[in-house]
Amino acid sequence: MSHTDVDVLIIGAGLSGIGAAWHLQDKCPGKTYAILERREAIGGTWDLFRYPGIRSDSDMHTLGYSFKPWTDAKAIADGPSIREYVRETAEEAGIDRHIRFSHTMTRAEWKSDDAAWHVTATRSDTGEEVTVTCNMLLMCAGYYSYREGHKPEFPGEADFRGRIVHPQLWPEDLDYKDQKVVVIGSGATAMTLVPAMADEAGHVTMLQRTPTYVVARPDQDVIANNLRRVLPDSWAYDITRAKNVGFQSFFYKQTRKKPEKAKERLLGMAKEALGEDMVETHFTPPYNPWDQRLCLIPNGDLYEAINNGSASVVTDHIARFTETGIKLESGEHLEADVIITATGLKLVVLGEADFVVDGEAVDFSQTFTYLGMGYSGVPNLISTFGYINASWTLRADLVAEYACRMINHMDETGMRQATPKLREEDRDMPARDCIEGFPAGYMQRAMPLMPRQGDRVPWINPQDYKREKKLFRSRDLDDGVMVFSNPGAGASGQDEERAAPDAVAAE
């Protein structure tokens, strides 16, 4: 086998990357690996975002790792607590010693001659360009740009005399005490910011174009906390995790099967907290539940801020920014000292890096997704993309387990290359969006950049935990689509390609 710097290279030291490293150490103990992290710290999203109130909108019994119990009393955790959980995981397992910080991956080139990815990264601390070679590349860089968030251009922005801030680039020196604040947006970030800033600000207004479904629930899981008193942490965690996964799956499927009933229930709970008029005007979306992600508010904190008068909601469209605030299409003017543009993320494919396979540039939008983690015609590459309808880490764990199965299978068969390839009967598949039934703007903006989805296994992205748990853990790796080839030295007795006879080279 040709020399590589490491057997496996992981991109990203956030929730997904640290989890992938743990599984690799556990299931492929003989493999060498490194993690390239563009920033100077562990944590990914949970280290990058520093806006007031930053927290998860998933419970930590499902957002946490399968192998490390979450033991804090709060199930809906704040950003610093999650960041510490990820950092602690890395330190306990010795993963932190494998991380190369300040390394931004810019290019990855696969060369079949040496069965290796040649990954180019720029070091932000020294400015130098370095190359790391590996046999298997695990992309755990998240799904959005770390450089900038999504920010529409608003007419008149230059006229505004106050500060305009995007939550992704929160300035440490922002003083909003006793200030009039307008938060543009109605997603999870906006609904976190409004109550968090309302305590100090003079007043906070959430300005939204379209209402979002909101669910209030306690930030503590009483059952989990009681179980930990009588059972070992790992048992209590596993039971709570199974309970919450089951409930999430049941609720999601009910919203799909009986949307009107789910809508009535969700709006009914909101009306109990805010009253009918407020909910009909500002909290009744024009779409069905889970057509877009629901917003979770712990302990009803947003409702409390609205009811005590420290926050308010306006549903309207922006005409333009003015010197002193925002003029709305209705003619109303919102006075503001600070405007927060909680307008979403800018989705990207595979960390904004360039990919090349044997001299040919890869256009991922022209590939088909292999089980939502691989790409037709691209060897030895597995990427982590979590669930849009459940906790991200549930899927990240499954993808990492699958990657380890594949690595071990290649060792057992003496092959150095694993490439998902379209069979002849796959070539007339309808090309569908990689993620369907989720019309959120940030997702739809990215669909043209993402791989396509077919209409048959394995060219699908189910986004279904129960189904994928079975698919990823028990599916035969030699499935007639994943072609194992490129034997290493000493593997002369192996077949040149291990796949069904109708497997053909990818475009």
How would you explain this protein's 3D organization?
With 507 residues, this protein is an alpha/beta fold. It folds into 2 domains: 294 residues, FAD/NAD(P)-binding domain (3-Layer(bba) Sandwich); 150 residues, 3-Layer(bba) Sandwich (FAD/NAD(P)-binding domain), CATH 3.50.50.60. The strands form 6 sheets. Strands 1, 2, 3, 4, 5, 6, 17, 18 and 21 form a 9-stranded mixed β-sheet that branches. Strand 14 and strand 15 form a beta hairpin. Helix 8 packs across helix 9 and helix 11 runs parallel beside helix 13. The longest helix is centred in the middle third of the chain and has 25 residues. It is globular and about 75 Å long. It starts with 5 loop residues before the first strand and ends in a 9-residue tail after the last strand. The C terminus is likely disordered.
Number of domains: 2
Roughly how many Å is the radius of gyration?
24 Å
Q: Which word captures the global form?
A: globular
State the share of residues found in helices, binned by percent. Answer: 25-40%
Summarize the main sheet. Answer: 9 strands, mixed
Query: What is the number of E strands?
Result: 24
Query: With helices defined by DSSP (H or I, 4 residues minimum), what is the helix count?
Result: 13
Strand content: 15-25%
Amino-to-carboxy terminus distance: 27 Å
Category by helix and strand content: alpha/beta
CATH class (first level) name of the largest domain:
Alpha Beta
The CATH topology label of the largest domain is FAD/NAD(P)-binding domain
Name of the CATH superfamily of the largest domain: FAD/NAD(P)-binding domain
| Mean pLDDT over all positions | 92
Q: Which residues sit in consecutive blocks of at least 5 with pLDDT less than 50?
A: 492-507
CATH architecture of the largest domain: 3-Layer(bba) Sandwich
